[in-house]
């Protein structure tokens, strides 16, 4: 299948590691012109080098962007458009909020999680839409969590704002279909990333067991019997954001090895 990504302008936020990095690499392998962003220039520089070497694609660049800063988001979109003439694909991604229950958080925690995990997505979409509408074509993927289908224990902030992403995506899919702009939400289950490892460590600390025991128990609950690999997640994202997807929009897809039992 031709994914029609060669030379396409792709923006990936939170791209210096984890799911963002894996997704950027898969786009680079398909010949896309990929603009990476995150808060750390050192990490971005290392990731850029790794992706160029792994993919053989020289068209990988980066810009520092804190997605809780609206001016930096505007600069991100401007830079992507200047670099490659337009923006064809946006991969909205952000680090997860801290674990905890309702009693653990004050207003400032809720406000920060809202800015990081929902408002940043709104702002970034706002900035890329003029370029997509001008071309009458575009793909937007919002990376959320498996909590979009089934809430996760001890992750109330994530459960709250990831659900908001689904509502945003579904509403926008109705508004943007006439412009051939497709938007979908993708929720990772237990994928082997630093984020999941840190959550396992926190759970282990709370329960007085080892992280290895937490992972072993979690893997037994997954029908496929293992954590997913970042590249497995990334390949699904790349398809949804590609020219191979011409009719799927407004959907929420969980990539979790069969873990979530909700319909």
From TrEMBL:
Q: Which CDD domains match?
A: BKR_like_SDR_like (cd05344)
Could you list the residue ranges forming a coiled coil in this record? none
Name of the protein in question: SDR family oxidoreductase
Question: Per the similarity annotation, which family is this?
Answer: Belongs to the short-chain dehydrogenases/reductases (SDR) family.
Instruction: Write down the Pfam families for this protein, in alphabetical order.
Output: adh_short_C2
Q: Which organism is it from?
A: Halobacillus naozhouensis
At the top level, the lineage of the source is: Bacteria
Xref: InterPro entries: NAD(P)-bd_dom_sf, SDR, SDR_fam
């Amino acid at each position: 299948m031709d994914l029609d990504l060669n030379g396409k302008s792709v923006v990936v936020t939170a791209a210096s590691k984890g799911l963002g990095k894996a997704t950027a690499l898969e786009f680079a392998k398909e010949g896309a012109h990929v603009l990476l962003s995150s808060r750390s220039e050192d990490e971005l520089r290392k990731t850029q080098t790794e992706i160029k070497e792994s993919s053989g694609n020289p068209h990988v660049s980066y810009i520092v962007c804190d997605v809780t800063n609206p001016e930096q988001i505007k600069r991100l979109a401007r830079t992507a458009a200047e670099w490659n003439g337009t923006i064809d694909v946006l991969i909205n991604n952000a680090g997860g909020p801290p674990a905890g229950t309702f009693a653990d958080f004050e207003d400032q925690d809720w406000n920060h999680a809202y800015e990081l995990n929902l408002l940043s997505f709104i702002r970034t979409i706002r900035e890329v839409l003029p370029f997509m509408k001008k071309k009458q074509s575009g793909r937007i993927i919002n990376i959320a969590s498996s909590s979009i289908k089934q809430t996760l224990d001890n992750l109330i902030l994530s459960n709250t704002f990831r659900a908001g992403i689904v509502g945003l995506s579904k509403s926008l899919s109705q508004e943007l279909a006439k412009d051939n702009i497709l938007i979908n939400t993708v929720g990772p289950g237990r994928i082997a990333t630093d984020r999941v490892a840190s959550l396992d460590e926190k759970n282990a600390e709370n329960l007085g067991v080892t992280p290895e025991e937490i992972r072993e128990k979690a893997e037994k609950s997954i029908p496929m019997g293992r954590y997913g690999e970042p590249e497995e997640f990334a390949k699904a994202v790349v398809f949804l954001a590609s020219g191979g997807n011409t009719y799927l929009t407004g959907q929420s897809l969980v990539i979790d090895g069969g873990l979530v039992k909700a319909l």
